[in-house]
Amino acid sequence: MAFPATRMRRNRVDDFTRRLVRETCLTTDHLIWPIFVCEGQNHHSAIKAMPGVARVSVDRLKAHLAEAVALGIPAIAIFPVTPEHLRDAVGSEAENPDNLICRAAREIKKHYPDLGIIGDVALDPYTDHGHDGLISGEEIVNDATLEVLARQAVNQARAGIDIIAPSDMMDGRVGVIRRALDQEGFQNTRIMSYAAKYASAFYGPFREALQSGGRLKGDKKTYQMDPANTDEALREVALDLEEGADMVMVKPGMPYLDIIHRVRTTFKVPLFAYQVSGEYAMLANAFEVGLLDREKTILESLIAFRRAGCHGVLTYFAVEAARILQKQK
Ligand code: PBG
């Protein structure tokens, strides 16, 4: 018998065969686009650490989202840049029905009623200390924070936000938010919990985007997970599902593909990953100086999430990836 008996390369010999044996796919349906919204009129400002990503004012949202909608991106996630004077120790602005995220959501639903909107629930865009919960001395207090998060979630649901995404990592928040939503008549408002969210250095550019960079006192290690842990992620996911999460998320993304894979094989529930600001910054800056091929690298980074077990990915490349996918059709 000729050697080698098995030729793996036979199935790679031409494009049609490669397409036939492909195990996973990436389509526009798998993309969620995070956007930054700020105060002001006709405002559009670049974020230095994230070339190609901008903060836009509410009046520019219609134009800002037009291409995403035309390309068929199913959902966006809104992050508000809260002005300094509206931040306080308890994050009161989170409960204001006319806060930036609520105004943005209403504006988006007016123009694009079928576009899904995800609202981040955590206090850090609204606190003057930059933490996701209430503080007492050095401590980020868990149980007192839950009540505020529940009111923040209901406030967002009232503004038309479809999916509440608690990113605060307080214990018990999914259950408290679920009950509050149900009590207020929002049975169909979904919860996508940031179930396994790590205390990561990859969030650095996001803090610049929200202009919350220098504000944070200390770090988030008493509530976000230790990057060294795996089993703990499964416990976090199990608890969030028991408490009523409809979908779960792993964050960051690329350095945590092992976690994504374990969550998917263990729970078989709708699973998302967040390719966070630092991951975007690494790639976008490498593209800028010509170190990596832009289109190929974007698609490869995203198919990796699908292969690992994700249903979808939150990525700042969403619109660009959708554009590339459309071109390839
Ligand atoms: C807020 C939140 C953060 C991100 C999403 N929601 C920052 C943090 O936890 O410090 C990071 C997203 C990114 O880096 O792209 N709780």
From TrEMBL:
Signal peptide: none
Protein name per the record: Delta-aminolevulinic acid dehydratase
Pathway assigned in UniProt: Porphyrin-containing compound metabolism; protoporphyrin-IX biosynthesis; coproporphyrinogen-III from 5-aminolevulinate: step 1/4
Cited SUPFAM superfamilies: Aldolase
UniProt-listed Pfam families: ALAD (PF00490)
Gene3D superfamilies reported for this sequence: Aldolase class I
SMART domains given in the database record: ALAD (SM01004)
Subunit structure: Homooctamer.
Cited CDD domains: ALAD_PBGS_aspartate_rich (cd04823)
InterPro entries given in the database record: ALAD, ALAD_AS, Aldolase_TIM
Catalytic activity: 2 5-aminolevulinate = porphobilinogen + 2 H2O + H(+)
Family designation: Belongs to the ALAD family.
Record keywords, A-Z: Heme biosynthesis, Lyase, Porphyrin biosynthesis
EC number: 4.2.1.24
Enzyme class, spelled out: lyase
